[in-house]
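retry 2 of 3: previous attempt timed out while embedding adenosine-5'-triphosphate. Reduced batch size to 1 and resubmitted. Inputs unchanged:
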Amino acid sequence: MAAVRGQPLQALGSKELNARAQHNITPLKSTRRINDENALPLKDEQQQPQQQQLQDENQLRKEKAKRKKEKLSSLCKTPPSLIRTRAGKDYRRGLFLGEGGFARCFQIRDDSGAVFAAKTVAKASIKSDKTKTKLLSEIKIHKSMNHTNIVKFIDCFEDDANVYILLEICPNQSLMDLLKKRKVLTEPEVRFFMTQIIGGIKHMHTRRVIHRDLKLGNIFFDPDMNLKIGDFGLAAALKKDTDRKYTICGTPNYIAPEVLTGKTAGHSYEVDIWSIGVMIYALLIGKPPFQSKDVSLIYERIKKNDYAFPEDKPCSEAAKDLITSILTTDPLKRPNLDEILESEFFKGEFPARITTESLICAPDYRGLDRMHSQLNFINCKKASGLIQQPTRNPVEILRTDLESEQPMTILPQSLSPGNTKSKYKEITEANNRTRKLEELSNQTGKSRRLDDGSRVLATQPVKFSDTVLKHECLSTLNGMLSAERESRLRTTRSQFTACKTPVLISKWVDYTNKYGFSYQFSSDDVGVLFNDGTTLIRTTRHNMFWFITDDTVEGWLASEYHISEIPDEFSRKVEIADFFANYMKVNLCKVSTEEELLNEKEEIFLRRYTRSDQFVMFEMSNGSIQFNFKDHNKICISQTGTVLTYISPDRTSETFLLSTIYREGYIPNVQRDIGLQSKLEAIKDALREKVNLH
Ligand SMILES: Nc1ncnc2c1ncn2[C@@H]1O[C@H](COP(=O)(O)OP(=O)(O)OP(=O)(O)O)[C@@H](O)[C@H]1O
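retry 2 succeeded.
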């Protein structure tokens, strides 16, 4: 049906679209997306003996695909050289860019000279309501995406013959085209590409979108050789994270086993993780792992997890380990996106960027040292939105990063106003004593001294809280560097002498999407860093609590109250702090089991915390900086960078002079390799970053 000018997109040809329906609700045996991704150039060593029947089926499929392509070309005629939209905008059609099973793509230029890609879908091919709904869903989902590694959705319009989806142009073709030219890619290139792809996928997944058709042919290069994920034709948006999808769809080589076998159990985000494994394998080995000439054989091999690493294609053990862990049949046993990036594979050479040289030949990254690689990796992750940029707000969070240590229960119900308010006596005039942080620091910061012996806040008038934070990071970094230097001198004590363990953060709950970040110290005091930047500390001492505000002129201001004298404006916050305290008591394990810690009664608070993909960093008001690493090892650097506390995953802690640890290269009583050196490097990098970025 020809649409009439002035009709909105929704009114599009309602009777037709079955081409798309076959696309999206894909019966496995259909020809849907059985395209060049199945016919990668290399020969398949593991191919089963061809039977006559299979050959016939293949022939039939090829013919069907050919007919479909011809039908597409006949339906989707080349658009006119001048395309007029109903909104009165003119576009000039340019070169033909390529075609898929459903759409043809052309260059298109607007009045200002800006060039886009126009994915063109013939209205004549939109035959059923179902197909129309699918197209609208693709448009809606793609439109909602906004990420540097996802093809930008610009606009959508129609003329009499076609629907045009205007997209950011990706002129350097797809990863599939690159692989065809190059046969295999180098590991540093794959690391770079996968980081960008994972950035795009994380954006989708945190918005509850599953792509379901991630493959090399759907990932395009922009003019600067950055990758952009495109084609949301099979994407699904979940209403809630626990929802499952049941439609069997995808591209044969990339389909996850649970899609093939889980007709009743359904599938979810893990299908995209599986595709990552297939893509890494394909880029390094030159063909997808389960490739076979016959589609049903591909499915058999996927179901049986039947693939191997060919001996004639050299590939590092780290790459093999990562691929093996991703291509696990049980979707729940696959690593998540963060775990993939933390794998050994990503610790190798990492280029700063990919140049167009890669389009022609294998670039040589042999000169890249470890330090530069690490820096490039961090920068690449930052550019792909995988590391939250610091803000002026002390609450630096990765809101979307769901972790085991986050609360699994839903808080709002139990925190509904009114139900606990009456527990406290409300008074109108607070008997509070407001003191400057300097006083608080005088009372509590006994251990926090600078190299010259003076107190941080006493010698350095606090103008802004950021200045204090920067100063603390700098003195800790300097302390660590001196300890490292000292360790090389003969004078360093080579015997480990146990030092006093500082107050540690023993439990924490990130609930910043609602209230704030709550933590419990080893002294049992509980604090909440609220989203508005204020802190409330519930001390165990005489039922006192502290209310700390981030003052832009004075630094932090601390007010002390007795629990029986809660001013109105704080009652809700106390209620929330109590809730968190109870939650942590019931649900979380303490970081350290050392009993002597309980005797510590320093009054300190958390100034800032930062969550990165490697660790959570806690900066405390007494200058201690604690790092909880993802592998459950924890390190706290205290006493201006001179003392290290190590807390093992089984929650025992030990504290020693950092210079001795540097000199000896290990921590006493720790038998396993905890990657101490790289953890200390990561800590120094984090401190450097804090110092430079403020
Ligand atoms: N943003 C873009 N920039 C440049 N070329 C593009 C862009 N998007 C798509 N193309 C080209 O158009 C072709 C078809 O696009 P696309 O894969 O989105 O269509 P499709 O019909 O949905 O494909 P499929 O059969 O994979 O579902 C691509 O293979 C590519 O060559």
